[in-house]
Amino acid sequence: MSQRISALILDLDDTLIDTRAAMVEAGTLVAKDLWPDADPRRWRGFGERYCFDPQQFYERYARGEIEFMEMRRLRFEETRGHHELADVGDRFSTFETDYWSAFEKSQALFDDTLELLDAADDAGLPMSLVTNSSQLLADMKVRISGLGSRFVSVLTTGTYGIGKPDRRLFDHARTDLGVPAAEILSVGDHLGRDITPAVQLGMQAAWLVRSDSHQSVPDNLDERVQVVATLGEVVALLG
Ligand SMILES: [Mg+2]
What we know:
Elements: E1 7-10, H1 19-34, H2 40-52, H3 57-62, H4 68-82, H5 92-105, H6 113-122, E2 127-130, H7 135-144, E3 153-155, H8 167-177, E4 184-188, H9 191-200, E5 204-208, E6 225-228, H10 231-237
Parallel strand pairs: 1-2, 1-4, 2-3, 4-5, 5-6
Helix pairs in contact: 1-2, 1-5, 6-10
The structure holds magnesium ion.
């Protein structure tokens, strides 16, 4: 990648913060409270399946097909059913409250996150955070992880009522950053949501495929996409 980079668009979940680990941890803790007599392996199993969401309820929410709370309840019931855990009736609301409390306590940056953010700050590169989190969740994650003042803007699904991969969100970020699209590097762990729309707008893109992410790089990947295994490799791209 030889083009000049003057600004960054960054994804949040599983790019800067280890959201998957926090979700598994939160789900496991809450399952333990809801089903104290169940086999302890089911607590962890619940946490993992709830996080990995094999029925892709989160994708349906991201496409605007279902509301956030409906997504959560469908995911909960699917996971509970799969692990043959007892119906908890209206205690789903307890799950929601306890889950978010546990999730908040489980927030953690990846080891290489500050390396990238510090390098970008040192190079004077403005950064915009673009996330499919709700405003409330994004605010919490940014606050807990201490990233609050790092970004020119934080764009969530609530900011304009749209989420990634809608290219308009990237275009709004470009406006906030105040530089041409060709000088922006978009960094994220999801090819379809973080990388493809940026490339379509003429931005540069670094697709983060961490070694434990269970992702595979397709043979026909657009040659404009740089694949990186760590955020440290993104630092090297900044020149
Ligand atoms: Mg992500």
